[in-house]
Amino acid sequence: MQTIAPGIRQLDTLIGGWSGVTAGFLIDGPQPALVETGARSSADTVVAALEAAGVGRADLRWLVLTHIHLDHAGAVGDLARAFPEATVVVHERGARHLADPTRLIDSAALVYGPLLDGLYGRMLPVAEDRLVAAADGHRIDLGGGRHLRLVDSPGHAKHHHAVLDEHTGTLLVGDAAGVRLPEMRHLRPAAPPPDFDLEQATASLHRFVELRPERVVLTHYGEVGEPEAVLREAEAILHQWVAVAEAVTARHAAAGVEEIAAALADAFLDPDEDLPDAVREKVETLNGVHSNAAGIARYLQRRARPQAS
Ligand SMILES: [Zn+2]
């Protein structure tokens, strides 16, 4: 575990056996919290990391999710069983999917295909009396004067909160500012189907800037640079990626996801970045160009619909 701010330790969930892809965050306090659970396939790793950090089975008080995508929330049912005193805090739009993950798993099966069982694993339900369905501004009390504040931040997903540690000004942004693994020079947007929405995503980034955080931390993966510059970069790349997709559909209205993905790869996969194949594989699996193409295509279709009628 790596201390990234006073009282905040970052742990590596080692999804798929890969390091430096998906983080969790242990926030100290009399009633400590874990933000992000990782995928279900990471549950044993996360339990062991918390135990090694001295968090006993009865000690952990909060399990906080940025959103319910399976790489962030898949282990929540296992961790709720492992830490019986922990209450799960999730966006109000995601809560019912934790109580009954059937639909969540069905839609994940469509998006992930064989990776669902091969990489992510499914999700155990969480008992309703262990769940808090939280709205924007919800504060989680860790005791000793420490609070986490949830910041509604749709765009990547409609059930997304960033988590602000008020004590240190650390903003855990989940996937709302994109992805940058330690080996990567550039941020990559995280614009998957079905929810990706450019206007919502940029509005969320503006909210983050207004919070004036001391540091911005991605779940994939870790702290990134000067906060305001990073958040502006995240907005700029979103506009750039959407613009490339728009140009494809402007040339050819019936352009499909494959054509958009090819154009995005041409425009943004930096041949000079010289990423090792293993890193490329991690990025493409986690946040592939194809997934972003599908999310942006769906967004463009949705945006066009009112004008079409
Ligand atoms: Zn996500």
Q: What would you say this structure looks like, in words?
A:
It is a single chain. By secondary structure, the protein is of the alpha/beta class. The protein folds into two domains: 2-228, Ribonuclease Z/Hydroxyacylglutathione hydrolase-like (Metallo-beta-lactamase, Chain A, 4-Layer Sandwich); 237-308, no CATH class. Helix content is 40%, strand content 18%. The strands form two sheets. It has a seven-stranded mixed beta sheet with strand order 1-2-3-4-5-6-7. Strands 8-9-10-11-12-13 form a six-stranded mixed beta sheet. Helix 1 (43-52) links the parallel strand 4 and strand 5 (62-64). It is globular, with a radius of gyration of 19 Å. The mean pLDDT is 94. Bound molecules: zinc ion. Residues 67, 69, 72, 156-157, 175 line the site of zinc ion.
Structural class: alpha/beta
Distance between the termini: 54 Å
CATH superfamily of the largest domain: Ribonuclease Z/Hydroxyacylglutathione hydrolase-like
The number of helical elements comes to: 11
> Cofactors and ligands present?
zinc ion
Tell me the number of strands: 13
Taken together, the total number of domains comes to 2
What is the correct CATH architecture of the largest domain?
4-Layer Sandwich
Relative helix content? 40-55%
- The shape, in one word, is globular
In short:
The protein is of the alpha/beta class.
Keywords summarizing the entry:
40% helix, Metallo-beta-lactamase, Chain A, six-stranded mixed sheet, 18% strand, globular, binds zinc ion, 309 residues, alpha/beta, seven-stranded mixed sheet, single chain, 13 strands
